[in-house]
Amino acid sequence: VSRQLKEEMRRGFARLEDPLAGLLAMLESSTDWKGKGHSLGYCITTELQLWIKAHPAVPQSGTKLKKLQTRVLGLLSQCPANLLDPLISIYQLHTLDRNCLLEHVSHLYLQGNYKEAAMLSIKLKLQPDQDVEKMCTPLLLQDKANLVEDYVAEYPELQRKLLQTLDVWCDPNFNIRDITRPYQGLSRYKPEKFNRRVLSKLVFRLLERFSVDPALCPNVINQQHLRTLKYLFYKRFVEKTMTEENWADHIQSTVGDSRWLQAQLVQLLLRHCDARGAARWALHCHLPPEILPRAVAEELHNLHLQDRVEEVTKADNYESSKKKDYYQLPIPRENIHFLQTWEETLQCWEKVLQPGQVVGVDMEWKPSFGMVGRPRVALLQLALKDEVFLLDLPRLLEQADSQGEKEKLPRFIQMLYSDAAITKLGYGMSGDLSSLVATCSALKDTEKQMQSVVDLLAVDKQVDGPSPEHSQEEKGLRQPEKGLSLLVQHVLGKPLDKREQLSNWEKRPLREEQILYAASDAYCLLEIYERLCKDPESFGLSSDLTESLVGKQSKKPKAKKQLNKQEAPSPSGQECRGGRTEPSCPPGPISPQEFSVVCDNMLQGLGRYLRCLGVDVRLLDNEDDHRRAAEIARQEGRVILTSGFPYQTLRSQVGEGRCFSVNCSEKAKEQALQVLKHFNVQVSLGDIFSRCQ
Questions:
Q1: What is 340-464+483-549's CATH number?
Q2: Is the pTM of this model over 0.70?
Q3: Which residue(s) pair with 453 in the sheet?
Q4: Which one of 183, 207, 360, 571 has the largest count of C-beta atoms within 10 Å of its C-beta?
């Protein structure tokens, strides 16, 4: 609005005997203000609001104001959201009798104006006097979960009531049609958005946003635990990529003392093992005999100690025979130090913070399996040429806190990352740092201060892989290697043994296998770096790789954008020349026909948009588990597009760079542009609508 028009408005307000009545008469006689955007009616209303603040004597009171308030209430249901606050302020609607306001909102609700009733309730803070289930149910049926979140945002008691209601609906024995039946004729009704899967996601979002104890929602939590159990069985009995001890750790921590989950575990055991195998695992997982089927209980009774010893010995021999197929640490076991005290850690600092030092850095955390909360780092690994230090972060943070020295750990880590004289090696370091910040908020600016950082994720896709014959030799023996394990195989000859990757890293004491895995993950970075710098041409890399990598990256942190596990790397690896001042070389352009993706079920709009542009898209159904995306990606060679918590689960199931996290708050067009730019997909006119819609 021009300054001249604003001045004319103010002069008009001053000439009116009753500006409030004048505005109301204008709104009642016109309709332009009912649309979205900044109409003339909107501009006049907001300008009057400002003018009244500058002229405090203008607002009325008494019977005349009450009559105006009653008329304004009749207009509010037709108001766009941006007009509600100005009108409530101008006509002082918060001073109206509360019962009158509640009656008006109830009238809106009975007319089917559920969104308007909720928005007005929020603006006038009427929620404590309303039935949260009654107000929110039609909003959820219309896929207005964001409005539901806003409705309970300031009221912890309402948050708990809503979560308890949603949890009842998520009970497998609850008939969800009992909820939907009264609203069959509802406008903008979206039944596909009202199912247990969608409601469970909302529960987890609310639990995290409002920091509510998950124990309030036993049905949702148990169903999530059941999905975790099924995933663990898939990893152990189908993929065969978890050790027995690792698998059993997760099974026990997932099931706990829940009789319902114990019964589910028994059914899964019978599906994947015979009665004797199920009995052995029932014994291992401490399942109560009374919940076991008769055949399994009999086998458990007959399972003698000698039989168990023989089976364990057989398993140990099998595990030992497989170790020779994987990368082995070249340093003795006594050179791996597990640090739980600050006295030990100070000695580690003295060795690590030496000018000219090259340090392999890695981190481990307990898998979330889709549960609430961001992963918190449980172990920080620092590898030097002759030894590896494993820092027990939870224990060290607890000690520092009890001593009133919270800054101890962040100070050390910031010194390490910001020291240009120390070369830090990692693989997806920015993703690790995100988890580190979730563990210790004082480290939030560490990434901006990083110097002399080499992220080997950047060169991974440029390294020439093994010959097809070599790949064929291993076909059928185990799952194909991916990520860091594949890079280790390409450069050092043997892959990493990743069966401990999904360990419970918070459990103490760590098992010996966990300690060796954690040390290997960090130490292998040193060997890869040394081999690539010594002979880059042998791996298909440019001859100036050494000059560009050794200690020169991140001298201008803003010019360098770390790739991480949350932001998938480009197919050709970005940052291969991080030490140069010019932008890093982008991946080679590909056409939409060459780009295949699978979209998680919260990104269906993005999937349809990409398909319009000619991209090969598979869409997950609303009922599909997020992990279905990983199965499709592995089987069909697709990139996973997902968002939020599922990313933490999915990224570990596919190769690095094959899972991309999309900003869910953006519209489909902006999301699509982000994806196309990241993977350098070039869309031509002929690609548009080239695929069946």
A1: 3.30.420.10
A2: no
A3: 424
A4: 360
